[in-house]
Amino acid sequence: MEWFTSSELAGTPGMPTTDRQIRNIMKDLASSEPEKARQREGSKATEYHISILPPVVQAALLRKAGKVKVGGMTLDLPKPQAPRYCKEQLWANWSKANDKAHAKAKDRLKAVQAVHALVANGSTLMEAYQHISAEFAIAMPTLRRYCAAVKGFDDCDWLAVLVPKQQQAATESRAARLALVSDQAWEFFKADYLRREQPNASVCYERLKLAARDQAWAVPSLSSLMRRLELEVPKPQQVMLRQGEHALMQLYPPQERTIEGLDAMEWINGDGYLHNVFVRWFNGEVIRPKTWFWQDIYSRKIVGWRTDISENTDSIRLSLMDVCSQYGIPREITIDNTRAAANKWMTGGVPNRYRFKVKPDDPLGLIPQLGIKLHWSSVLLGKGHGQAKPIERAFGKGGLEQYIDIAPGLDGCYTGPNPMAKPDNYGERVANAEDFLRMVAEGVAMYNAKLGRQTEACRGVMSFDQAFAQSYAQATVRKASREQLMMMMLQAEATRVSQHGTIRLEAGGAIASRNNRYYHPDLAQYAGQKVVAKFDPQRLHEAVIVTTLHGQTICEAECQDKVAFGDTQQAREHKRRRTQFVKANKAAALAQQGMSALEAAALLPSISDEPAPETKVVEMVRPVALGNAALAVQPAPLAASQPHTEPAPVVDYEARYIAANELALATLKKSRI
Q1: CATH architecture of 267-472
Q2: What residue stretches are annotated with the HTH Mu-type domain (predicted)?
């Protein structure tokens, strides 16, 4: 193309970007050679020959068209050749080969490069073949085959070309070399072997042979079937069919989280651990205790724990109280979504898998009341997700079991991690509860003090204690007040206020309908409503703190004791208190009335008879007929529902009353006589 308009030249190197400026320049360039400007056919635009353009603009236009001007000739630029081979596929084959094949390819590359180096220095090709074959101990036909293989490939790809093809060919032809098996026999074996019961392959093979005897199936050896299974059914699919979806999920690499941006006591997580130790508890029962541990996520230090018969609300609540009293209130908490950890007294007001919808009359839990953001650990496919909580690693190998359960002080008390791994001295001794709690405290201290922890905060040098202390000294920690600690110390129970202003507590479960009744005058205001009573389980006969469902304190209600049926002294005392209650509330009620009902009635406006409104249109009454043919007016007959009755006689009630009194006096005198 040799002719260009101003719009086609816009933006070309050496030319302006606007049509107007280009038109002015082109008019000046074509003024000396007017034949180099003409009107484009079929258009009003003026086009100009390339020869009047500056050399820079000409070169740019020719390069854009794939041409170049040499002297007085315009030549086409050589087009890049299409790729002769796929580099990606070539190196993909390299990556599939093993280390042995890589080593052979490197040796072959050295020989081929040596041949090309000798030829480049003036040697003939045959001389180079002879010399290199003797130098590298390679047969000449083999060396020539190597050199021919790299012909047409770039030098940088020779290594991938020289990879031995035996392994790749064996892999590709593996399916073709498998032993023959009938389609139905193969499906029978897969249906039997790939089950959740995980049957043994040898037993499945025996059943296959029994079925093949009657069906005339071709059945190879068991090893051939297992090789076919490995080739046709990938490992993840085998895990899914034999072990389930949860096991398949565990094949996916876990997510790694960083503690960057966290401080000590900013985020903690907790979980319960069942000890593998026999302990005689305080009630005399031999049990395996369970301890609830709180761990700081930043440093991995165990910051609080409580041991009990089982994982329950009390151990979680009291261990959290220990953490808050010693180190402060954390900002966020991660716990399991279990019944004990997710109960309403700890987490009320926060939805979980047992409490999808928060009811308006549900009490606010202890953790939300403290301003702690609650996180639930994941429950995937019906099972817990231990990777979500760092404290799970403290229960694994080399964890708290080694520091507590297998401590020398508990020798003979260890049960083993499972029934199949019992020690030889199983059941030899039972530890006392006091000794066991002391061993737990010592084990936690040793666990926290171990140096060289391989964590992000410890960096293989510090202990959990040191990492915690280093960050805790610079962190902003919320300290717990006395009221908050008291709130964590007390248990809570939701109850409804009766019409008498009393509440009843079962204190965690009534036995033989036993419960306690508490009263305070302020509770009458909440009759029929739900409230929360907080109490010390060891002092149930003392006062309890009553709050609203949102944590606002109402009063301290006193326990009301039952009295004997014939106790007159208690009856008089009860009557005295009831009289005081009535008098006090009566006086307060009268004080509320600044105006009597009669005074209020006197202020109402008087109501007069309402005048009838005046009509604008009046209709004349017209008789039915006129003249002597009109019917006489007859009285209206009585309706059936209104029968005719005689007028009622007048009764003298005063005379009847006097007569009745005289009759009564006469009867009384007669009975006395």
Answers
A1: 2-Layer Sandwich (3.30)
A2: 1-69
Of 384, 342, 349, 377, the C-alpha closest to 363 is: 349
Q: Which residues contact 306 (CB under 8 A, 6 or more apart)?
A: 291, 292, 314, 315, 316, 318, 319, 322
Contact 102, 163 (CB under 8 A): yes
Q: What CATH number does the domain located at 3-76 have?
A: 1.10.10.10
Q: Are strands 431-432 and 279-280 parallel, antiparallel or unpaired?
A: parallel
Cβ count near 498 (within 10 Å): 15
Let me know: does 294 contact 335? Beta carbons within 8 Å.
Answer: no
Under a CB-based contact definition with an 8 Å cutoff, are residues 229 and 193 in contact? yes
- Angle at which helix 99-120 crosses helix 125-136, to 10 degrees, equals 140
Instruction: Convert the pLDDT of each residue in 534-547 to its tens digit.
Output: 876 656 777 888 98
pLDDT, one tens digit per residue, over 176-205 is 778 899 999 999 999 999 999 999 999 999
Class of domain 183-250: mainly alpha
Dist. CA 27–CA 37, nearest whole Å: 9
Superfamily of domain 87-172: Homeodomain-like (1.10.10.60)
Average pLDDT for 229-251: 91
pTM summary value: 0.57
Among residues 276, 167, 178, 248, the alpha carbon closest in space to that of 218 is found at 178
Higher-confidence position of 321 and 168: 321
Torsion over CA of 234, 238, 244 and 248, rounded to 10 degrees? -30
CATH top-level class for 490-563? mainly beta
The answer to whether residue 89 scores a pLDDT higher than 90 is: no
Type and span of the H or E element at 271: strand 267-274
The pLDDT-based confidence of 641 (bands split at 50, 70, 90) is very low
State the SS3 of 341-400.
CCCHHHHCCCCCCCCCCCCCCCCCCHHHHCCCEEEECCEECCEECHHHCHHHHHHCCCCH
Q: How many Å apart are CA 366 and CA 334, to the nearest integer?
A: 14
Enumerate the domain spans of the chain. 3-76, 87-172, 183-250, 267-472, 490-563
What is the 8-class DSSP label of residue 329? B
